[in-house]
Amino acid sequence: MREFGSEFASLVLPDTYFSLINSKFRDFIYLRSGRDGLGVVAQNIKSDRKCILLPAYCCDSMVYPFTRNGWEIHYYSLEMDLTVNLVSLKAAIDIHAPIAILFMNYFGIAPTAMVINEIKEYSNDIVIIEDFTHCLFDIHDIYNEHVDYYVSSIRKWIGINDGAIVLSKHLIERKPVYVENDFVNIRTKAQNVKRRYLTTGNIEDKKIYRTALRRAEQCLEEDIHIVGMSTDSMRLLYLLNSSEIKNQRRQNYFHLLELIKDINSISFPINVSKVCTPFALPIEVNNRDGVQRELADRNLYAPVLWPLGDEARSICVVSARMADNMLAIPIDQRYDYDDIEEISKILHSVLV
After folding, report:
1. Which of 282, 305, 304 is CA-nearest to residue 293?
2. 301-347, pLDDT tens digit by residue?
3. Which residues contact 64 (CB under 8 A, 6 or more apart)?
């Protein structure tokens, strides 16, 4: 029940989350995007033979930083719960002799520690990279001493125009700085228009910001440079209170899960009851693209993570299934109890 008037709630002071995670590592750097972060890692690993294993379930922005730096890419498959298929991974190691392997804890529910530890015993020279975009605020819980590089997008979690982080056991030799770029400039203007739209409800503003955000992503895809994080985003980053963000996301996640768990046309791809600070609530549905359009018609925007190429599909049927059926339902800190109730009503109206 919403209340109007009366006293203000207390203001929340920023905490030191990002300062503390930086202190755990030998080196770190903030970048414009997750793909820029992986690009720094791809350049920082020194080897005459550049070969990396990636999970079959990954987006283009995880592949591109390595291909454009001359790396040879191969894939390994996943189990039904999105943890690593160790048999597939060891077979790929034996066949391709990779210099590096990239891991990902999907949605904060597919832990990587056991398999990373085993791979280090199997071949200690392999460089271990973990993309922790889906569990950005839980580095203290997932930290593994065997990981050489942790990489995460930040901008996908909070309302900043750009941002990603690389945490490294090694010195980072090349540290790009921020330079003005179309991606940040266009996103800044788009987010300002979106803030205005959320206040006024002007449908023309909605068209403007959505078009601009698509253009910004296109600019990022076309830009071959690696760029540091902008000053404005960095300043905002240190004004955050991570505890508030974590608490709100967890409350929203479990609230929505309880409301939709009995919808027969929804299946949950993994054990969604065990989660770090959640990135989103993943669901699987039939006629995924049609469902996505119907949700969008009701102003609920659920992204697809991710479209896959033919090679990745052929390696892993689980990844192909996720690419075809999965939607990520938003549960982030922008939303409160009543908002989650509304999201549930929209899902019921489309899927029941």
Report:
1. 304
2. 999 999 998 999 999 999 999 999 999 999 999 999 999 999 999 99
3. 35
CA distances from 141 to 100, 124, 276, 347 (A): 23, 23, 8, 32
Residue 125 is encoded by which pair of tokens?
């020279």
List the beta bridge partners of residue 104: 131
230 three-state secondary structure: coil
Please give the structure tokens belonging to residue 13. Answer: 């002071």
- Residues counted in the chain: 352
- Which among 132, 195, 185 has a CA at the least distance from the CA of 162? 185
Closest CA to 276 of 301, 306, 245: 245
Alpha helices in 46-181 (DSSP H): 60-67, 86-96, 113-122, 139-142
Contact residues for 242 (Cβ-Cβ < 8 A; gap 6+): 15, 17, 137
Q: Are residues 13 and 241 in contact, defined by beta-carbon separation less than 8 angstroms?
A: yes
Q: What is the pLDDT of residue 13?
A: 82
Task: Give residue for tokens 């359009």.
Answer: 293
N- to C-terminal Cα distance for the chain? 25
Q: Is the dihedral of CA 46, 52, 57, 61 positive or negative?
A: positive
Of the pLDDT bands very low, low, confident and very high (cuts 50, 70, 90), residue 272 is low
Distance CA 36, CA 100 (A): 18
- Whole-model pTM over 0.70: yes
Residue entry with tokens 């203000």? 8
- C-alpha to C-alpha distance for 51 and 99, rounded to whole angstroms: 5
